[in-house]
């Protein structure tokens, strides 16, 4: 039954309250069928303002306990109202809705997240690991404080390789997630020969770190670039990677990205576009999770439509709520005026 | 939980069937065009047979891709939308949608839009031949397309012309859907009555806009959009009241219904049936609650049929005050 | 906590002063007529000097007792009122109210209403002679009186006539306050511009009604009322946008402002100042918050004067899209 | 400072939760100046729906603890939203607003309440008793359950005479509060001579009880009428009266109502009109607390105006929020169409 009153099992701050992130655990029927990348359409209160439901991704699924977790940032009136709901209350929820990410049968799965775009990826990581896929995370956020609040600890516990960046450089590379992602990709394509040159050109610490970890056991030697101030990163992130144990040291087949590679991307639109273009150009299977304002959530109002193009470039409209929110990266038309 | 089951359970039932000229509905609750897709999207949340009727998304002669995103945003107690009449077009509608619509266990109302009188005539001619359509709703009021649409809806002469063109082409009941973006809604109502409409539905959305202050640009891709939802209900109820005074045609009232009290408000003001649009977004069970509440209301207040409610606030007022139908 | 104090505290200030034709206000935030009495009622909650200006309750030549109760009711995110222009009348206003108004530490705008062109002329002639009045606001749009009022506001010719009559009688800046209950607000704006208005204020309330379903009668004693508050903001912003395109006059924008973001929305759409009405009911500190927020916004976005915001969403859009000022 | 954020000290059901009555205790600056009959204009939530503040009377004032108590019935959207506010939260409140009841210097004060009109009268009773006035309550409600929920126990603790009625006859007289009030008045005017006749005409139990209590120590002997089924009333109410101890047994000067008599009336409009007409006709000083929908609460919007008439019958408008909510009964024009 996809229209349900889920019981609020727990509800509180996620990490540092100043970051305004919240964790909401719901018990009810949604857990039974939920898939990573799907969302719940949540009525935040019984008042008429805010009026519309809010789409919130399913961040974790626990079928045994019949629980799903939703992580969100308090941003505007809807999430403010939601934040006031108390454990024990019942939440009016439609869903799980949408298609969700496709989980590859085999191969490697790279998760690429910008900011709170990380939230829907956790359930996918869990599912991927359960299926025995090689899972790797690229994640960029505002600051170290943000990443830590938004669940870095839990991600570390998954023991997969983490490639981080922050806009203020307080953890990982400085910049968007495209910095570690681009760096890692380039290294894998160009091979070790060009590495020192790249380092000399001042490429990112993460890139350097990735290179470093490929060369030897990670976290042992730092390149010049790394010495600049990424000790913390080394200690934390590379430590995670080496501890991950799922992969041989170095984390990646030398000289080439893995052949059977899928990307799941979620984050701000600009970031997703940049990432999708990177991946699509290289022929990877890229999936992005789009965001649009939604009214109905079920395909009835056409309020959430975006333009897609098929292989022959023909444009048509798709509903983010029903045909998405996950779309093949190559189909998305990023120009919003279309 | 369906009203029918309830009726049996409670014995003496309240008659929910309503007759609007040539259109008979098993109950007075209709899904508003553009908010309920092609009838099935919500079926997991609210059984299709709940509805007295479903008005499907507006159809144009040619397929339309609609407006760029964002197409909607929320305003206080309202929804601002600029979908821009995205629809598969007449041909595809007839081929892929209508066959499935015919099987719906409710009256199917096809909402039609055009950019010229000929467009409307073409749609009426073509749809008028098809089985399984209960009525045509002539949308002369969509504010989300740059040309046409709103113009017909705000000019009495064009409104009359469009309705007359549709009237000539079909024997189906013709519902004229009015725009609230006018100085005097009664004038428009009289015009479509002259044009031969059987029923009037109102209101479509109020023209509005919202600006993103951080980006310093309109939120909607189309700049302007149509405002719907509870915010507009007082305007809608007032217009139903006015139109009830101005013309003899049955009225389908809508605008911001999210509960049975709202539906009763429209009926008492003069509507014979109501439509629920944005209310479905808030809660897909609104139609069920409206029907249940309507029945309970009639029972408590001693009415044996919902039809008795139509315009009652006006007739009772006239009786009480001798003010007659004087404009407030 | 006053904006001035804040400005000093923070050093480099944002210029809040705005010039609207002949009317200079120390800041762009005005109390909307009819919601702020005669300026002092709220003084314990919000210092009078906070305001750039205060528009007092609409004055008519003769005293008026207004409409019977209930005069107001709440609607979703809105207020429906039918006060019916209760006011002490011109003579009593001059005698007992104006002297105290003159001492208010803000610009006093006198809102005038009439039932004939002569009424308006009389009011303008008499008030125009008085010191201590910053501007006259010509209310041609009050929907709560059975005759007059709304008619002037919905007919371009009468609107022009009324404004011209006022114009002839006074050298004070003339603000023409427009009704939103019209098909094309631009037409009305052009009419009052022709009539000689210096400034346009909009919007007045949307005509609406509410029915008590248990009593089966309209809630308001007057049956119809005027809808204000956040519910109407999208309509108001759209109309400011349209009027900004249609005429060259400065605009005072209002309708549903309850926070600084809302005020910025109006400025970006084309307003040079804003009025706060129903927002005071929700929270008397809204003007303080709006001023503080406005200043912060300008600082963050790099504007040294709020005047730079006027119409910016339009000019930036035109620059970006080459769509110019095409209607959406 | 009359615009304040009062802290919610406690907030919960008043009596049987099924009655939908709530008790809200606020700590803050309102208590310092509050007078009986004044009200607070409460912002029930920070959402825009419900939009307007709700006027709620001050039911009790504790200056020492800086607390005021507000009692209310959950009725529509505003009170529903208010009911969700939690202790510890701060409530945005304007007030105390309005004029309040005038507290007579001396003499007798009769409180006349219909339903939840009782709420503002408690603070007045307290103030009256503190001043040494003779205070007497007439109160009609739906049922015994309602009266008990709405604070009958607390009223009993005041040890003043209580004259009760219920619409279903489950406690006190059957009918509105005009039944015990009218009966008591008539007895006091007509004197004992006509009493048995009145009883024979089937006058109300309360009337009879009042007569009984005037005749002798209350609760001792029942008239025929009383025998009909008001034992519970006798036991409870007359018990209260006899225990009250403030007045000589019998409660009222025989044959005449007290000369220096003030009435404070609050309840549904029809009830107030009936009571006011009773009292005004007899020349008592009658004050009624009117209700109108309010927007500003401070006299700025003219939304709450009612028609009053002066001694010469001239009509004019008064603001319930500022000139009221308490008005002299003789000034009120009850016909709403005026
Ligand atoms: C499929 C899907 C899944 C989502 N999953 C999550 C999640 O797991 N966690 C989470 O924190 N958020 C998620 N979001 C986003 C979330 O729904 C919005 O942040 C939320 O609706 C904002 O609501 P609000 O009421 O707090 O803000 P509002 O008051 O509605 O808006 C605040 C600001 O955000 C803008 N805004 C609001 N909604 C959107 C939107 N959909 N797209 C772009 N801009 C918008 C508004 O214009 C405004 O500027 C998801 C969105 C979608 C479509
Ligand atoms: C001076 C004053 C003091 C008050 N003190 C108390 C008090 O101590 N305890 C208490 O429980 N209530 C009190 N009230 C009434 C209280 O303010 C209303 O019951 C409350 O506003 C109803 O709000 P709501 O949001 O629950 O209902 P709403 O959803 O606003 O309305 C529910 C129903 O009540 C009607 N209604 C709402 N407000 C009024 C009104 N003011 N007059 C007549 N009908 C109305 C509506 O039309 C609707 O039918 C007082 C009112 C006033 C004016
Ligand atoms: C997203 C959306 C799309 C709509 N599309 C149409 C349409 O295609 N044709 C039409 O006549 N009305 C359309 N409407 C208007 C509704 O049918 C209805 O008249 C209006 O929304 C007011 O009702 P409501 O407040 O219950 O939503 C649309 C409304 C919305 C919100
Ligand atoms: C109770 C009330 C009384 C009003 N009286 C007047 C008036 O006398 N003259 C006038 O021009 N506008 C009057 N208005 C309209 C307001 O000035 C304003 O235009 C309208 O309320 C929209 O702004 P808001 O949404 O901020 O309230 C009144 C509005 C309200 C709510
Ligand atoms: S939100 Fe309605 S179609 Fe997607
Ligand atoms: S509520 Fe505004 S004047 Fe009384």
Q: Can you describe this structure?
A:
Chains A, D: Residues 188-225 are annotated as: Disordered. Chains A, D: Residues 210-225 have a biased composition (Low complexity). Chains A, D: Keywords: Oxidoreductase. Chains A, D: It comes from Acididesulfobacillus acetoxydans. Chains A, D: It is an enzyme of class 1 (oxidoreductase). The complex is a heterotetramer, with 2 copies of chain A (338 residues) and 2 copies of chain B (328 residues). Chain A is an alpha/beta fold. Chain A folds into 3 domains: 3-97, Translation factors (Elongation Factor Tu (Ef-tu), domain 3); 108-289, Nucleotide-binding domain of ferredoxin-NADP reductase (FNR) module (Rossmann fold, 3-Layer(aba) Sandwich), CATH 3.40.50; 292-338, Ribbon (Dihydroorotate dehydrogenase B (pyrk subunit), domain 3). Helix content of chain A is 28%, strand content 27%. Chain A has 11 helices and 16 strands. A 7-stranded antiparallel sheet of chain A has the order 4-3-7-1-2-6-5. Chain A is globular, with a radius of gyration of 20 Å. The relative contact order of chain A is 0.13. The model of chain A is unreliable at 190-254 (pLDDT under 50). With 328 residues, chain B is of the alpha/beta class. Chain B has a single domain (3-320), classed as TIM Barrel. Chain B contains 11 helices and 16 strands. Chain B has helices at 3-10, 90-102, 117-128, 150-154, 156-169, 185-195, 233-246, 260-269, 278-282, 286-301, 312-321; strands spanning 18-20, 23-25, 29-31, 53-55, 72-75, 78-81, 107-112, 135-139, 174-177, 199-202, 206-209, 211-212, 217-218, 224-228, 251-254, 273-276. Chain B has an 8-stranded parallel β-barrel, surrounded by 6 helices. Chain B has a 4-stranded antiparallel sheet with strand order 5-6-14-11, with no helix packed on it. Chain B has a two-stranded antiparallel sheet with strand order 1-2. In chain B, β15 (251-254), α8 and β16 (273-276) form a beta-alpha-beta unit. Chain B is globular, with a radius of gyration of 19 Å. The relative contact order of chain B is 0.16. Chains C and D meet through β5, β6 and α9 of C and β14 and β15 of D. The structure holds flavin-adenine dinucleotide (FAD) (2 copies), flavin mononucleotide (FMN) (2 copies) and FE2/S2 (inorganic) cluster (2 copies). One FE2/S2 (inorganic) cluster (FES) is lined by residues 294-297, 299-304, 319-321 of chain D.
């Amino acid at each position: 039954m996809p229209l349900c009153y889920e019981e609020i099992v727990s509800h509180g701050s996620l990490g540092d309250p100043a970051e305004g992130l919240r964790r909401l655990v719901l018990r009810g029927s949604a857990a039974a069928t939920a898939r990573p990348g799907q969302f719940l359409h949540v009525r935040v209160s019984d008042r008429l303002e805010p009026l519309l439901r809010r789409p919130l991704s399913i961040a974790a699924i626990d079928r045994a306990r019949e629980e799903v977790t939703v992580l969100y940032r308090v941003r505007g009136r809807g999430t403010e109202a939601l934040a006031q709901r108390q454990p024990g209350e019942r939440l009016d929820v439609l869903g799980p809705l949408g298609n969700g990410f496709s989980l590859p049968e085999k191969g490697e799965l790279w998760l690429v997240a910008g900011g709170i775009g990380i939230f829907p990826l956790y359930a996918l990581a869990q599912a991927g690991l359960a299926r025995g896929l090689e899972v790797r995370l690229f994640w960029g956020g505002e600051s170290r404080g943000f990443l830590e609040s938004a669940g870095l600890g839990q991600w570390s516990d998954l023991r997969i390789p983490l490639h981080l960046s922050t806009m203020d450089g307080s953890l990982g590379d400085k910049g968007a997630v495209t910095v570690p992602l681009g760096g890692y990709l380039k290294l894998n394509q160009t091979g070790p020969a060009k590495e020192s040159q790249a380092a000399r050109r001042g490429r990112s610490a993460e890139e350097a770190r990735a290179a470093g970890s490929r060369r030897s056991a990670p976290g042992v030697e730092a390149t010049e670039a790394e010495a600049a101030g990424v000790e913390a990163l080394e200690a934390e992130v590379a430590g995670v990677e080496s501890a991950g144990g799922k992969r041989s040291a170095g984390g990646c087949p030398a000289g080439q990205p893995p052949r059977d590679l899928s990307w799941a991307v979620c984050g701000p639109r600009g970031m997703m576009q940049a990432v999708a273009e990177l991946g699509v150009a290289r022929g990877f299977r890229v999936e992005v999770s789009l965001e649009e304002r939604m009214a109905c959530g079920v395909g009835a109002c056409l309020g959430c439509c975006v333009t897609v193009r098929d292989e022959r470039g023909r444009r048509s409209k798709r509903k983010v709520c029903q045909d998405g929110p996950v779309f093949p990266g190559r189909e998305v038309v990023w120009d919003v005026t279309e | 939980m369906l009203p029918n089951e309830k009726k049996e359970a409670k014995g003496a039932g309240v008659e929910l069937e309503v007759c609007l000229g040539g259109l008979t509905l098993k109950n007075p609750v209709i899904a508003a065009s553009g908010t309920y897709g092609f009838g099935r999207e919500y079926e997991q949340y609210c059984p299709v047979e709940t509805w007295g009727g479903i008005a499907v998304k507006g159809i144009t002669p040619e397929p339309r891709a609609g407006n760029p995103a964002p197409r909607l945003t929320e305003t206080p107690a309202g929804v601002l939308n600029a979908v821009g009449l995205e629809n598969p077009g007449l041909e595809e509608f007839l081929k892929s949608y209508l066959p499935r619509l015919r099987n719906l266990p409710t009256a199917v109302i096809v909402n039609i839009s055009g950019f010229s009188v000929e467009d409307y005539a073409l749609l009426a001619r073509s749809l008028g031949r098809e089985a399984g359509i209960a009525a045509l709703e002539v949308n002369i009021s969509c504010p989300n397309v740059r040309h046409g649409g709103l113009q017909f809806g705000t000019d009495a002469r064009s409104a009359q012309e469009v309705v007359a063109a549709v009237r000539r082409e079909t024997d189906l009941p013709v519902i004229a859907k009015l725009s609230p973006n006018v100085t005097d809604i009664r004038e428009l109502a009289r015009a479509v009555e002259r044009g031969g409409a059987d029923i009037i539905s109102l209101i479509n959305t109020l023209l509005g806009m919202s600006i993103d202050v951080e980006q310093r640009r309109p939120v909607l891709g189309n700049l302007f959009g149509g405002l719907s939802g509870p915010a507009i209900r007082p305007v809608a109820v007032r217009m139903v009241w006015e139109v009830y005074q101005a013309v003899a045609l049955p009225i389908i009232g809508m605008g911001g219904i999210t509960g049975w009290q709202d539906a009763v408000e429209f009926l008492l003001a003069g509507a014979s049936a109501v439509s629920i649009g944005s209310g479905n977004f808030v809660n897909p069970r609104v139609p069920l609650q409206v029907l249940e509440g309507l029945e309970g209301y009639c029972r408590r207040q001693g009415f044996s049929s919902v039809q008795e409610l139509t315009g009652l606030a006006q007739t009772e007022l006239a009786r009480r005050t001798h003010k007659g139908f004087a404009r407030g």
